[in-house]
């Protein structure tokens, strides 16, 4: 995902500094080149040697800074970086960054760096809530810095509250978005349904299917890093992403939530005001609906309260079902680009079924997934998709679900006509 990108990781003196090693590994695994700059206090918690071994790049500290024909100095590293990620950022660091104070090497590098900045604070709750720190965070946002919100919980000091370093995965996704924003998707509403619906039979049993929701999560990830305003709806969760996630288990409930989400997406996205961009603006782009959920065709006609007992049901049990409404047909999709997803096992007739879906439901495209071939099945991490358009054109994608989602989003750009 981040192949060839240049990430400069700044580490300050927090007890959570050890987590920076895992963050560096995530960036490297995604294909990025990572360099590290450390404050003097950071070296009390994690050694430069550890990070040098992980990144295979020189770690910039006061002891290693060199001007003898080397780029290992605060100007060289600042110019090299495409994004500066400061994680963890202490309260002291936040306040100094906001006011341009550069009294150690990391702060000097930050002041000299014109690249995008992603800052992940970590400090005691009282320090984070102090008016000076709160004001510093506002100033940093005005200066276009992306602030990764702290998580809540028990802190190293024993206090409970906000101030813990955000999850490493969250910092990774914020950084990926800073690097991969796409003008087409930026501030565009994208509503995604995902997972297999759950239709209750009684308080214990239900009708569902084998859909894992992994493709929907991959679509949410790919849309998020491109700057989209993502809303994920269904019995799935993407807690590692700062997106709108709405739980919807039954088809009926999902239909209601989807209609509400589409109504909101049409209103547009209000940007935040910054010192470089001026006042906030309302940006209205045509929303996208990606129907990746596996919606049950039928539900129990008479769902029961409590648990039905086996002794009462007897040796055989006739369960009466009724058909669920077709969500795509029932939704008001005016002014929305609509993409359906279809899973088939019948390879011979799969494309004709997808083409029929395309026409009958008046979709802008259908993504066809033929299961049971080449290791592709429910829950697998790899997939194969064929994108079918109304004009008869098609495109094939294969690979990890995230890679396929990225390819699909690139292809979806042509659907906004």
Protein model, in words:
This protein has helices at residues 19-29, 48-55, 74-80, 91-98, 105-112, 125-129, 131-142, 168-180, 214-225, 251-267, 310-313, 327-330, 350-360, 401-412; strands at residues 6-11, 33-38, 59-60, 83-89, 116-121, 146-147, 151-154, 160-164, 189-193, 199-200, 206-207, 229-234, 244-247, 269-270, 282-283, 288-291, 298-300, 321-323, 337-344, 365-370, 382-388, 394-400. The mean pLDDT is 93. It has 417 residues and is α/β, with parallel strands linked by helices. It contains 14 helices and 22 strands. The strands form six sheets. It has an eight-stranded mixed sheet with strand order 13-12-9-16-19-20-21-22, sandwiched between helices. Helix 1 (19-29) packs across helix 8, helix 3 (74-80) crosses helix 5 and helix 9 crosses helix 14. It folds into two domains: 6-178, Flavin prenyltransferase-like (Rossmann fold), CATH 3.40.50; 183-309 and 317-415, Rossmann fold.
